[in-house]
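For the sake of transparency, this paper describes our internal protein records without simplification. The remainder of this section carries one protein's record, kept here as part of the documentation:
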Amino acid sequence: MSLDSVIISGGGTGGHIYPALAIADEIKRRHPGCQIQFVGAEGRMEMEKVPNAGYPIDGLWITGIERKILSKKNLLFPFKLISSLLKAGKLIRKHKPQIAIGVGGFASGPLLYRAAGKGIPTLIQEQNSFPGITNKLLAKKALRICTGFPDMERWFPKSRITITGNPLRSGISDISGKQQEGLKHFGLSDAKKTVFIMGGSLGARSMNEATKKALEAWDKAGIQVLWQTGKRFFEPNQQLVQEAGFSHVVVLGFIDRMDLAYGAADCIVSRAGAMSISELAIVGKPSIFVPSPHVSEDHQTKNAKSLTDRNAAILLTDKAVVDDLEATVLNLLSDEVLCTKLSASIQAQARPNAASDVVDEIEKLIGGK
């Protein structure tokens, strides 16, 4: 049986959107004639990112519930939910999908709920080691739950879980042989160890403060820095580096060649979003994770602990990073045995074929294999 019509729903953050696009690309690779329709939440980033990737998308009038129960925004939630359920039903009747796929986020709830009610097979892909509310609810009816992390039986029925890993954007799967290319691309020396600081496209204030504090000590130790500050922190930190005369610090607001940045690095300091962890497992470089304290249910800490519990990474809390990052990087880069151990352990957690594995499960559900 071929795949002719699929609906993929969810979004809100890149951590939901990019796995969805990777799944869509793999479906298209296998089934070129398949019609793939995305469903997102009006006003969220998927409404721009998905069309830019070449796929059509419809928006639902849906948001989450504010934590403050008495918030005025919550008064609209019942109306938004009813509106979204009605529109989801119309979209299902229009597109007649063989399967509905949810990747987390507000929009996946109404769409998959209506699909399951109509007897359409549903599959959810959960990126984090601590699932969101939407996927917890949807898991009761989903026929398959593809997870990015192991040990998810606490949240989902064991018989329906398949550990696939998280589908990743193209270009990250293989960085072998890219160290010299990466160093040259960013104007770095091949005679120095390189630490890559990445706080995401928006940046992380605590990680930037920690880096500023550590620059002098790292420079004296012969360590060069590739520093992704985030766009909003770029100009002041670039000025600081120029005025201090650090010749082996490269400051960038955003990096579009992540494969080369990963290739150039000897160790990496990162937030602990699910997609960053999945990428760094494939990259296989010694990594220090600094979980963001500003995410729901503190799921980044749980993501990071899924690796540190396996001796595959180092965890620094956001509160400790300013005081401890300098010494942690110095100690790591001076300990070749630890670097080798962390590199091997994190790479053992990698699942480079995640998108393919998810589509295998989709095909099984509709009788394709």
Q: What stands out?
A: Residues 179-347 form a domain with the Rossmann fold fold (CATH 3.40.50.2000). Residues 129 and 302 are 6 Å apart (CA to CA).
